[in-house]
Design goal:
Helix content: 10-25%
Shape: globular
Order of helices and strands: HEEEEHEEHHEE
Radius of gyration: 15 Å
Distance between the termini: 20 Å
Strand content: over 45%
């Protein structure tokens, strides 16, 4: 497991930025990290929400978080929607908040997407060297 995965296992909540009519839009989001090889960073939303329509128009995002130990993580990349019912159900089964919203993986409003390709940057505020990672899940 690399440092990127370690950070996301400890803190999955951060902020997701999308493009809305040519302007950035940011909102709280949670990474759903699944134990696959390689790890895929899944996120989910409802197809009735503005974020879903923004991602349909422009599939480029940035996810960012800061840890209590002053580590800044930024993931920038292109997303891909995924209709895999096994993965959807696994997320519903393992996340109380997602389960309270969608109840089951086959909820027609439940949309799943992951960062298909991009880059991650870990910055340490204690002056350690930053770390870069390439994300590629095609």
């Amino acid at each position: 497991m690399n440092k990127l995965d370690e950070i996301l296992f400890k803190q999955k909540k951060g902020f997701l930025a999308t493009i809305d009519n040519g302007r950035p839009r940011i909102r709280p989001f949670e990474i759903q990290l699944l134990l696959d090889s390689p790890f895929k960073y899944y996120l989910c939303t409802a197809n009735s929400k503005a974020v879903y329509h923004q991602l349909q128009k422009s599939p480029f995002v940035e996810f960012s978080l800061a840890t209590p130990s002053n580590i800044i993580l930024r993931i920038t990349g292109k997303i891909r929607f995924d209709d895999d019912m096994v993965i959807k159900q696994k997320i519903v089964d393992t996340n109380d908040l997602v389960r309270s919203i969608y109840r089951t993986g086959d909820n027609p409003n439940f949309e799943l997407f992951y960062i298909e390709e991009g880059e991650a940057l870990i910055t340490y505020l204690d002056n350690r060297d930053s770390e870069y990672f390439t994300i590629y899940n095609k």
